[in-house]
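Feature request, filed as a ticket because there's no other form

It would be nice if the structure record came with a short human-readable summary line next to the tokens. Right now we just get the raw output. Example of a typical job, pasted below so the devs can see what we mean:
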Amino acid sequence: MLSGLSWPAVAALMMAGVLLDLLVGEARRFHPLVGFGNLASFIQRKLNRGRGRLLRGALAWALAVLPLTALTAWLCGVGWAVHALLLYLCIGLRSLREHNLPIAAALTAGDLPRARFLTSMIVSRDTANAGEADLAKASAESLLENGNDAVFGTLFWFAVAGGPGAVLFRLVNTLDAMWGYRNQRFLYFGRVAARVDDVMNYLPARLTALSYVLLAPTMTGKRRAWQCWRTQAPTWGSPNAGPVMSSGAGALSLALGGAAIYDGAVEQRPPLGSGAPAQAADIGRAWRLVLHTAVLWLACAVIAALLVTGAQHA
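Raw output as currently delivered:
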């Protein structure tokens, strides 16, 4: 383990961090990731100008990520509990529920204006004139994709490198969300941020996709999820979002992807999954798939710890 932690310690600290998140939720004020976003915006404004945008972007990435990761590694020398605290600050399992289930509730109550407002808080697409199916689709897609970005990728890198690994992953993922656009302003400046995120997300995304396949409720659903992953993921623009979202949509027997409105223009995206269009109740189903996947990963960590401990005492 890069963190120097034993597998039993990793499993125990992982459980502690996830339980803290589920019991306490994210910080309402002064959340570290919000502060990091403000820092990243400041660095971007100072360096994203003039010539040499690619090198400037690489420098900006290093200034934003490396000192904070080094600081967290130093803090972990205080004691093992710091690892669990860092995981709690990085993971967003309860946040996914708190941001998405109210959308389902608003749709069930027929309150489209509130559902549109709540959905606009979690996605970048236009929701001003969206109907129930559009809003349910946006929420389900967000849950499936962010299950990897906010939960499983964080758990993966925590298992590899403890608290500093979780912090590094979330900082990298946040910079990709802020700078990883293929537009005139960020095409070169954000390239390093996007590529590093692609690399760090490669294994977690595929483990997440495999988990969605395994947790599909029926054998037919498992086969559908696997088939959607293999055939649809290559058509998706993101090399990591494609496997996660296609397998998740297939596991839920939902038809996601397709048309979405961005900046007033309709963008026709590749299809994801197979089945019926999303409805309000499917948001809860997507959340439960993410939750069950988290339980599966924690169970795997505990089993690994027991096997290692048993081997050491054999």
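Something like this underneath would help us a lot:
The chain has one domain: 7-313.
Strands lie at 254-262, 265-273, 276-277.
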